Amino acid sequence: IAQFAAGDARTALNTLEMAVTNGEISADKTTVTMEVLKQCIGKKSFLYDKKGEEHYNIISALHKSMRNSDPDAAVYWLEAGEDPLYVARRLIRFASEDVGMADSQALPLAVAAYQACHFLGMPECNVHLSHTVIYLSMASKSNSAYAAYETAKEDAQATMTET
Fold first, then answer.
1. pLDDT digit string (tens) for 124-150?
2. pLDDT at 107 over 80
3. d(Cα 160, Cα 19) in Å, to the nearest integer?
């Protein structure tokens, strides 16, 4: 399991859980045979659960990879099986929240990627998502628009009741 996980604790724990769940359960112990373990690690997968925690872990890993200007990692997480329209919406948010005023072309590109995904669907739109993820990863970053809005919102909420 450690070799299979290659240093990724989440993968190791998920693999261990899958192996135990599929093991031979008796009253006092659970036995995981090599055959069961080989089935669990036979094909590397993201152990993706669209409605569970992995949904958020995958999109978070994509977001952090782009924020860290790592296009290779970002494209890797792009391929994790998430709904392309959901990814495209997150890219639109990232284009303004993280890239923002440092590169004003990021937002139109992200919107165009969303439209391409909407028109084409998968797998045809994968190149558009990849293009946008690489662009956003490599773009200069500025959260000044996001920070300005958040500051104004806090100020407005604090002073709204003042007359």
1. 888 999 999 999 999 999 999 888 899
2. yes
3. 56
Distances (CA, A) of 48 to 45, 52, 86: 8, 8, 15
Tell me whether the omega of the peptide bond preceding residue 71 falls within 30 degrees of 0, making it cis. Answer: no
- SS3 letters for the chain? CHHHHCCCHHHHHHHHHHHHHCCEECCCCEECCHHHHHHHHCCCCCCCCCCCHHHHHHHHHHHHHHHCCCHHHHHHHHCCCCCHHHHHHHHHHHHHHHHHHHCCCHHHHHHHHHHHHHHHCCCCCHHHHHHHHHHHHHCCCCCHHHHHHHHHHHHHHHHCCCC
Query: Which pair of tokens denotes residue 121?
Result: 């669907």
pTM over 0.90: no
Mean pLDDT of the chain: 84
d(Cα 131, Cα 120) in Å, to the nearest integer?
15
- Tally Cβ neighbours within 10 Å of residue 100: 22
